[in-house]
Amino acid sequence: MRSSKALRIFIYRDPDPNILKWTELREYLKKRVGCTVEIREPLFKQNESLARAFAAARVHDPLKPLANREPLPSEIQIEEKFLGAQKQIPGVLYDGLEIQRLCLGLLPVGERTRDHLHLVFVNRLIGTYEQDGRYHIHAAVFGFPTLLSVQGVVFGPARPKEYYTLRGQLSEEELYERLERRFLVLDDPRLTEVVKGYAIQAVFYHVFGNPFCENSQCRLYNARWQEELLKAQLSSPEFCERHEQMLQEFKSEITGTPC
Ligand SMILES: [Zn+2]
Does the 8-254 domain belong in CATH 3.40.630.30? Predict the structure, then answer.
């Protein structure tokens, strides 16, 4: 699975321009991976065939796998509006594998090789249908390209248990403060730092074939809870010893300098 020593990373930024600090994310990847990292405009442009494809990828029943159905004209119209929106699209879940497939078709043909790592940010909720018979929301759907969803970062890993017991009694803002910010919200100043970890997971998936680590302190930890996510992404050290070494060795291969 090991790729060649040439690697270029392309970040297709979220249509919602202010959701993350894009330059900071790019500089972090450059520093840790040692390769060229380029930020590009969002991958999706407004057009009818794309709107149709998004409408067809909508999950209507999270307890059933995606049905092969022709979308209604009204659904396609809504998706056309969504494709022009420079903000997060709330409340609709899309099949991540379908979106990934349609993204692959939008990448420049000459860049569909293993020397290119494409990170496509989507301003939507994405999920995959799992063996337990329901869709799970994801922050990242790894593959070619890898999809990243900030909504998935915020709404994928579960919030502290108290959140669910207090939810009816307090507003979101009150809960955020009451629970001492032990979970992320969409305008959270910590989001860019947390997303760096998912971007590095995508690098590990692309280069080594496995994005995850069992060590809860490591940025490659597959967090199920927001508190686990914040601990893995915001506290030192960044990586467990093994993954730190793998990353440094890969960087030295890319840059041609010993680590
Ligand atoms: Zn690790």
Answer: no
